[in-house]
Recover the amino acids of this structure.
């Protein structure tokens, strides 16, 4: 996934995640919401796997396969409430996604814009100098 365009990174930076509780009811219908929901789902599963191993996610899935709600399956399988696990996951994403990281992803765009601004300022200065020179020449006369 392109980290520059990741909706999950933007959500982490802004603190605007889709709550997992609402994703249990269904994914958003709009394109951006659906992409964010898929990115969140993938990241949350990766978080569980990194913290509890493959066995942890399999225990959660077994519980859900047996008809348990997601929050119950997580609590039983991992011995932690879903909301607590979700908060830990959000915190880990926020630690990874800082303004510095975001700016580094967009460094080329920022530098390009900055150089364009410098070029415009330089052009304006040249025009003003040229006008001042022309005015001085006209005042001195032949």
């Amino acid at each position: 996934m392109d980290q520059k365009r990741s909706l999950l990174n933007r959500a982490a930076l802004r603190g605007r995640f889709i709550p997992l509780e609402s994703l249990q009811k269904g994914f958003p219908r709009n394109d951006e919401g659906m992409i964010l929901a898929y990115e969140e789902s993938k990241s949350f599963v990766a978080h569980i796997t990194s913290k509890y191993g493959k066995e942890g996610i399999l225990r959660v899935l077994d519980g859900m396969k047996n008809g348990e709600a997601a929050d119950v399956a997580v609590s039983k399988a991992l011995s932690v409430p879903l909301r607590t696990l979700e908060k830990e996951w959000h915190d880990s994403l926020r630690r990874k996604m800082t303004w510095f990281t975001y700016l580094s992803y967009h460094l080329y765009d920022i530098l390009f814009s900055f150089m364009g601004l410098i070029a415009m300022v330089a052009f304006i200065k040249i025009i003003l100098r040229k006008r001042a020179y022309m005015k001085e020449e006209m005042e001195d006369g032949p």
